[in-house]
Design goal:
The complex is a heterodimer of chains A (310) and B (357).
Chain A lengths: L1 H30 L6 H14 L5 H24 L7 H26 L5 E2 L9 E4 L2 E4 H23 L1 H11 L1 H6 L4 H26 L2 E2 L5 H14 L4 H25 L15 H15 L17
Helix pairs in contact in A: 1-5, 1-6, 1-8, 1-9, 1-10, 2-3, 2-8, 2-9, 3-8, 5-6, 5-8, 6-8, 9-10, 10-11
Chain B lengths: L1 H27 L2 H27 L6 H16 L5 H4 L5 H4 L5 H23 L4 H21 L19 H20 L1 H11 L1 H6 L4 H24 L13 H14 L4 H23 L1 E3 L2 E3 L5 H16 L14 H9 L14
Antiparallel strand pairs in B: 1-2
Classes of the chains: A mainly alpha (310), B mainly alpha (357).
Chain lengths: 310, 357
């Protein structure tokens, strides 16, 4: 029965990571930018939930979504657009710089007020209680995370497949130059993708802050790093593959963590890979193995990925 | 003769700048800032080591700091006096617990371990390129950090390793960094360096010309790992003689990559200029937080603003000059100084201009 418990928790974490993966994958698809600063959009949304405490849950979430969309658009306008035709390394380091900038701006809040880092959030706090089903012990937020993930992905699929802007976004992701030639407005498509990724960042932030109600200047950072890894493992050239990759890394993190914690050694001098503290190493070794076997991505059909330069 | 001198100019320029920086700092800087300036010099070594792989191959690696970490921890661990080790680090393997080595040997060991580790990681990983290579090298960093943080048989685990002899003074920092610089220069001028640069510019054409991409990348990766390990050895012997795993993880990775990109990824001059420039801005802003005296007034920046400032400066440089400060060009003399030799005839045939992008 405990394995079922681990499975449900793992699907819950996977769903959140999948949401983050879609946000990162959308921007990558259209702009070919690996946005390391995506975690700071999640952080901004989380801080909005802190600042709007007492406004009621609906208002707080709406404000968080609105501000995050604006922040996402501002990031695109001020950093991505000027660097659109430069080397990937430059853009990547620029997004590092944005990420560091925002983290350190958030840190100023605590150095000014001279207090320990961290604020607590109470939005949708009731969801943190557990529902007991037989011997299972599942927090409501896990169900909400899985449900939100499913609904958000379905809505996105509808948007991409059934609307004009969705069609344009898919065209731009497939071949930006040709898409422009046949009349797709580049900036409209980019802004739509960037705004959507902002919405997804805010939704992820709501779920993440319910799961762990402490907001710090590094909120969203480790999730982004793991999701970026998952997205590359899944395959960046396709949004579906990227999303599956994000889900998989969240799932693996939660499930293997549980297995290592119950089966592994607890000794301080345990040999690496046999104790739960070595979970990151286990994940990273798996990541390296997958990348060596399927460099284009686990969920990309081989032969369909664009030919990579060497 | 003149052509030989000209061809050495891209080495002499950065080397001169580092030496000048070290001499001025050692003579003028007060004791409080001393560590920051010595660290700045060691940072140059780390960034140049990173450049050897990233700059020459064009493949972004997030993993080079793992080699810095291995070098730093091995050099630190084995120079802590062996009579105190059983007390502070009881879980160590006997080999590490009962032996101590001198500072020079610790640097040799750091370089050797960095190189061996890079070889082991590089053999499989150098088959990858692009994003996959970036993520895989990041995974190496994650594994290194994770194991160093928890396995108390090979290190201090999550605690701080202290009592490391402080032997990296200005002289050792400068000489060590200049050695790294010279090796990097010799490599990029060598047959292998040029072959690797060819694969960076056009992989398909380079392969068609008979260049083995995997082997050339692996060579640069191992050399970069060796130099990174050595730089880690220099780093660990800086004051206050202590180190934690967090010091050689994400922050250092991003900082050194940013220094390289801000300077200009594709040139040695860019690596040196970026490292020294970003370090200087950082030191200035940190001192600004403590207050600067200007004609009787004391101006101080708010606490924590130095990190904000450094990120802003990096961002500004990237937005204004996406190719970095140097734009990927090597050091050259200003036109006015080059004039005389050039006016005698045509410019002497440049010794294969460094490809700048």
């Amino acid at each position: 029965m405990t394995h079922v418990q681990a499975l449900i928790d793992a699907i819950g974490l996977g769903a959140v990571y999948a949401l983050v993966a879609v946000g990162i994958g959308l921007v990558f698809g259209v702009l070919r930018i690996v946005n390391f600063a995506y975690g700071q959009l999640i952080m901004i949304a989380a801080y909005m939930l802190v600042f709007t405490q007492g406004w009621g849950d609906v208002a707080a979430i709406l404000v968080a979504v609105a501000v995050t969309v604006v922040a996402s658009l501002a990031m695109d306008r001020s950093v991505f657009r000027p660097l659109r035709n430069t080397s990937p390394a430059t853009v990547l380091v620029a997004t590092f710089a944005v990420s560091y900038l925002l983290q350190n701006v958030a840190l100023l809040r605590y150095t000014y007020q001279n207090r320990p880092v961290g604020d607590s959030v109470g939005v949708l706090g009731g969801l943190n209680q557990a529902a007991d089903i037989g011997s299972l012990h599942v927090r409501w937020i896990t169900f909400v995370a899985i449900g939100t993930g499913a609904v958000a992905l379905a809505a996105l699929a509808l948007l991409l497949n059934r609307t004009a802007i969705g069609l344009q976004m898919r065209a731009a992701a497939a071949d930006f130059r040709t898409a422009r030639m046949i009349g797709v407005r580049a900036n409209t498509v980019i802004m739509a993708a960037v705004a959507l990724s902002g919405v997804l960042a805010a939704v992820s932030a709501v779920i993440l802050t319910v799961q762990s109600p402490q907001v710090t200047n590094t909120t969203g950072l480790s999730e982004t790093i793991f999701v970026l890894i998952g997205v590359v493992v899944g395959g960046m050239t396709s949004l579906v593959a990227a999303t599956l990759g994000g889900f998989l890394i969240g799932f693996a993190n939660s499930f293997l963590g549980y297995e290592l914690a119950t089966q592994g050694s607890t000794s301080q001098t345990a040999v690496p890979f046999t104790s739960s503290v070595y979970l990151p190493s286990v994940i990273f070794v798996l990541v390296i193995l997958v990348l060596l076997l399927r460099p284009d991505g686990l969920f990309v059909r081989s032969g369909r990925a664009p030919v990579e330069r060497v | 003769m003149r052509r030989v001198l000209d061809s050495l100019l891209p080495l002499a320029g950065p080397a001169g700048l580092i030496a000048l920086f070290a001499v001025i700092a050692s003579q003028t800087v007060n004791a409080a800032d001393d560590v920051k300036f010595r660290t700045a010099i060691v940072n140059v070594a780390i960034v140049v080591a990173l450049y050897v792989f990233v700059g020459n191959s064009g493949v972004v690696s997030f993993g080079q700091v793992s080699f810095v970490a291995v070098g730093a921890f091995s050099a630190g661990l084995l120079t802590v006096p062996s009579d105190v080790k059983p007390g502070v680090l009881p879980d160590l393997f006997p080999l590490f617990k009962d032996h101590s080595i001198s500072n020079p040997w610790s640097l040799v060991l750091a370089a050797a371990l960095g190189g061996v580790f890079a070889l082991v990681a590089g053999v499989p990983l150098m088959r990858l390129s692009g994003l996959a290579a970036g993520i895989a090298t990041f995974a190496v960093l994650g594994i290194t950090y994770n194991i160093l943080t928890y396995w108390t048989r090979i290190g201090p685990g999550a605690t701080t390793l202290t009592l490391i002899p402080v032997t990296t003074d200005y002289l050792q920092a400068t000489v060590g960094t200049l050695a790294v610089l010279a090796i990097a220069f010799a490599y990029q001028r060598s047959r292998w360096g040029r072959q690797l640069r060819a694969t960076r510019e056009d992989p398909a054409a380079a392969q068609a010309a008979g260049i083995d991409v995997h082997r050339q990348r692996l060579g640069a990766f191992v050399l970069s790992g060796t130099l990174s390990g050595f730089a880690g050895g220099l780093y660990v012997h800086l004051p206050p003689g202590s180190i934690t795993t967090n010091q050689v993880y994400l922050d250092l990775t991003f900082l050194t990559l940013a220094m390289l990109v801000v300077g200009g990824v594709h040139s040695l001059w860019g690596a040196v200029l970026g490292a020294l420039g970003v370090s200087l801005v950082n030191i200035l802003l940190q001192n600004g937080e403590n207050g600067i005296h200007l004609g009787g007034w004391k101006i101080s920046l708010p606490q924590g603003s130095s990190l904000v400032g450094v990120s802003l400066v990096m961002l500004a440089v990237l937005l204004l000059r996406p190719g970095g400060i140097t734009g990927g060009r090597e050091f050259t003399l200003p036109r006015s100084l080059r004039g005389r030799a050039g006016s005698a005839g045509a410019e002497p045939p440049a010794p294969a201009p460094e490809a700048g992008v």
